[in-house]
Structures are given as C-alpha cells and as structure tokens.
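Archive transcription. Copying these from loose printouts into the bound notebook so they stop getting lost. Printout 1 of 2:
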Amino acid sequence: MPKRITYHVLPKPDGTWGVKKAKAKRMAFVSAKKPAVIRKAKSLAKKNKLGQVKIHDHHGKIEFEWTYGKDPERFPG
C-alpha cells in the first residue's frame, strides 16, 4: 500500500510562506502570499493517490488539514 505524502504550509522567518514535503530539507514552493502557497500544496497533494496538506500558523500550530484519497482510519481513544 502506498504511503500518504504530507505537505506542510509553513511561515518563514523573512515573512514569506512556503510548502514543504514531510521530511524534506528544502521548501518546494515559496511565495509572499499564504493563499498561493495553500493552492500549490493542495495541487501537489491531489497529484498523489494519497495526499495530505497541513496549514500551520505563525506559532507552528496546525490551523487546517485536508486529506485526499482514502481517509486514515479513526480509532477511539
């Protein structure tokens, strides 16, 4: 079974925003506008059969999350 690929939308210290694939060293896309980076992250995630986008705020906390393909199973707890 293929693994889910996660893309994170993160703020950079210089005030711009970037999209970074999980465990990657560099940003895949950078822009001054957060909505442009979100659109790019969503398009990258949709290209994969299993993709996920996590949007972070300026403090590193996750604001929103989108999952494409089969949703991961939820476990009670």
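Printout 2 of 2:
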Amino acid sequence: MSSQPLVRRAVLILALAAAPLAAQPPTPAPQELGIKYMRDSEEYAALARQVYRMAGDAVTRTAATAGRQRWAVVLDIDETALDNSTYQLERAAYHVPFDAQSWDAWVSRREAGAVPGVADFIALVRRAGGHVAWITNRDAAAAEATRANLQSVKMWADDDRLCAQTSPEHSKAMRRAEVVSGKGDCSWSGVAMRIAVFVGDQMGDFPDATEHIPGTGTDDAFGRTCFLLPDSMYGGWIARVTRVR
C-alpha cells in the first residue's frame, strides 16, 4: 500500500486539530492586559467619561456660587489628560521596561492622544470662566513638547499654567500651594485661586490633610472636589500585595 494516502490523512488530521487554535486571537501576557484594558475596553472609556462628567458637575456648581472669586481646576497630565498607552504598548512589544531615555523620546514625539472625556471637560471649564493648572511630574525640560502635545488635542490655552517638576524636591504639594496662594510660578499674577476640582490617576495628584485646601484631604472629597481616573498600566499598586484601605 502506498504511504501517500496515510500522509495526506495525517496532514488533514493535523490541520483540523489546529484550526480552532488558529481562530483564537493571541492572549496577551499578564503585564500587557492592563495596557489592553485602557486601549480597547469600552468599560475604561465609559469610566473616564463618567469621571469627567462628575467633575464637570462640580465645576458648574462652583461657577454658580463663585461670584467675583477667581477659580481654577488642577489636572495631572499623564493618563489624566494625555493617553500614553502607545508608549506602554511599544515597550511591551519588545519586553522592555520603562526608562527615562525612552520616555523623553516619547514625550518629544508629541503623539499622545486625549483621555476620553477630558476635552469636553476642559471646554466646559473655559466656558464657565475657570482657569486650568496642569501639575505634572514631567521634567521642566519637556515643557515645550508637553504644551505642543496638549495644543494638538485642543486642550492648551495661553492662560493655562504648566507646572512641571524642576527638581525631585519640587513636589506636587508645593505647586498646588502656589496655585492656591497666588505666589510662585504656578500662580496667576499673584491672584489667590479657589480650586474647584482636582483630577488625577494617582493618589499623589490630590492634596492630603496637611495641605489644608478646602474640600480635600479626606476620602469624602472623592466624587466632590477630587476625581480619580482608573490606571491599570502603572502606579504604586504594582508593588503592593494587600489592599491598603
């Protein structure tokens, strides 16, 4: 008996066995699932828009009661206003971690998109007569590229304050104090500001109780003056193994 029919039969059996596997999309590695969630899930986009709608309601309430008092909103930038998931995806594709040199190159590309919901929120703030302070731990040397990226997604205005980090000691708390007091590089011509809303994706984006900023510093502030976006790509939670609160 010729061996050809047996060979053809074996090939057919192997092809049929492999067919269901070929129809399955590749499963991302565990460390890549957080990136995929923020890029591809409807749930993440809906959550981000929900947070910004709630923040917008808080802005509307402030605008209605502010009278002549000047007020502002404070936002983080990365994963709060600008979506850097493309950078994270590129690093994951080569199985290499974050590093400062590649991050600086990414910032210089000015290609980050907008987080869902943020552009509408910023537009609402401006219509209501508010000011915008961007408090970020991006290095001050990246200020020009950061402004250009924000402008490319229609979120930068000349009146805004970009409060980048000038040194490791230049904390976000220090920069928040400048906005509130009206003194320092993050202030508006010496005018003290009422802060209507803080938005961020890490707990460090929000004042703690020692800063004595009205409406902040407690868990009750979240959903009222402080609005937290989900971030499944990075953060202090990666190093923790138990819930802290």
